[in-house]
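This section describes the prediction task in plain terms. A model, or a person checking by hand, is given the sequence of a single protein chain and must write out its three-dimensional structure as a string of tokens. No templates, partner chains or ligands are provided. The sample shown here is typical of the held-out split.
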Amino acid sequence: MTIGGLSNGTTYTVSVAACNAVGCTPSSEIPSATAAPFGAPSTPDVVGSVSGTTINWSWGPPSNDGGRPISSYQISLDGSLVATGTQTTYSGTYGNSETHTLSVVAVNSAGAASNAGSASETTVAATQPPPSNTYSETVGGPTNTWTNYSDAGGTQGPSISTGQTVQITCKVTGFKVADGNSWWYRIASSPWSNSYYASADAFYNDGATSGSLSGTPFDDPAVPNC
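The expected answer:
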């Protein structure tokens, strides 16, 4: 006889009575047995963290062990099995800007879970040292500076005053401003110290230090790309 609809890990008592036309076995004489159904465990929750180019993953037992203790974990990195055991952490050191995914399957005496818990993390980007040379450029009006040149956002830095000459490290393409310019300068001078950018069209870019910006080039071709 098979009884369905039971919960894994829960103990049930089964008793069987013999019956005929006269009646059934007295309850005091009915033998009984206990059993607990079990199955594969659920999915463990995997979390990751990044420290430079090192990724650390960790996980704990799944919320449902299927009615049997977890005996091991199958650990895969980027789709390839790298370890099987009882460990609950995994770490690796990789190159800059690399993304890796760790997947973990819980196993008990009934077998492996049908799904893996996973987490993907990306190592930090390489820090590019600024070129040794800088270039003098002068702004034609108050100029905003930003840490993120790709969208003219991030953290706003100190403004550059009208007519101020600053040292430029290099240029990079980023957010396109209203007049169509997409070149941005990395500013070497303090207090910007190579951490902030300004749109290159705010500068004269032709050696001038005063006057109108009308008709001046968008960027100075002498300034190298970052």
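For orientation: The chain has a mean pLDDT of 88.
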